[in-house]
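[Meeting: bench + compute handoff]

Bench side (C.D.) handed over the final construct sequence. Compute side (W.E.) agreed to return the predicted structure before the next meeting so the bench team could plan truncations. Sequence as handed over:
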Amino acid sequence: MVNPLDHPLFQRVSHWINLINFLVLGITGWFIHSPYPGMPMNIIRNLHFLFMWFLVINGIVRVYYSFFGKYRDYGEIMLNMKDIKNIWPQTKYYLFIGKHPETGKYNPLQKIAYISLPIMSVFQIITGAILYWPIKFGGLAGYFGGLAAVRGIHYIIMWLFIAVVAIHLYLVFTTAYEQFLYMFFGKMKNEKGR
């Protein structure tokens, strides 16, 4: 049974915004990386840049809310000693070779994923800014090994995002379908007429 306080409305809306951001950034990023003849590249780049700002703003607001909001949840996302001990048992459970360890709202692998997303986002923003303004940030590109390396890093992180989202979706639909229904529709399967 899903507890409504597990996913308050603000957290659900932030999640929806991130879903849209990741979709648009992934699609436009792919077209920037592999354009087709006749594509309106200026529009695609501007869309990519616009949704980067939506991601940044949503990320800042979500982090602020995690620490200072009515339903602050930073304590549920940060790793603790029990989580560190449960990383391998949780991994074994997901590989179908172990029992499900007892965890809190989020298991340790979820926490690692949720902590890694903002970190990867920061690297995407930095590398994306270098790619968007190569002359202005040319000196910064040198720290990453040059412009070609920056492009490669940006591309690899995109695939890491895709991997995290794909695993997240797989696990939601195989182990937490009620959470999915609540996250997107505000009600569970067995709730009628509300």
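W.E. noted at the follow-up: The chain has one domain: 4-185. C.D. will use this when planning the next construct.
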